[in-house]
Amino acid sequence: MKRFYLLFILFPLLPILGNAQHYGNSLGLRLGNNDLGRTVGLTFQQRITKRGTLEGILQSDFSTNTTAHLLYEFHRPLLSKRLNYYYGAGISFGNEESFIKDKTRKEIIQTYGNRTMGTDFILGLELTLLKTVIAFDYKPNINIVGREEFFRGQAGVSVRMVLLDRKTQKKRQRQRRRANNQKDQVPIDQKLKSIFEKK
Fold first, then answer.
1. Is 187 part of a structural domain of the chain?
2. 142: closest CA among 159, 162, 121, 156?
3. Which domain of life does the UniProt lineage start with (predicted)?
């Protein structure tokens, strides 16, 4: 019901949000939560295609779990260009605790400091408003090595500040293309002459 009220409040703002600027990259904090506890982390997102971003997350519970994640995400508009859902996958590394069930003694043995590697998936919803990106996501992790549990899921909330808006990013890309084209248009004899010129 709370989600319905949130959408009801945001609905009149959608025309404004639709005209808001795109972001090229953003940096901020991510709070994660799962059965084992809460984590605090840094998140950086870089747009690399029209609808694709790379997101790096470094998070820790400042006790027994510290992980780094790199995800490729596809973004799709939902009602507005500034309200998106996204999904993706990636890889993770870290030091984590693990729980091993000893069935003969009916005990759970906890170990920590395990070097882990896994595959991440992500599904989320994000809103960009006033150079701020607010995102809610669910990020399941499948263990490859280093941990007894095969699957762990984590819900997260991220708040990121836009460092470079999409308009500025496109402008810089056009300038680089122009500069490269001008280099390519220099006649060959001038290129050869510049090689042998004394400096």
1. no
2. 121
3. Bacteria
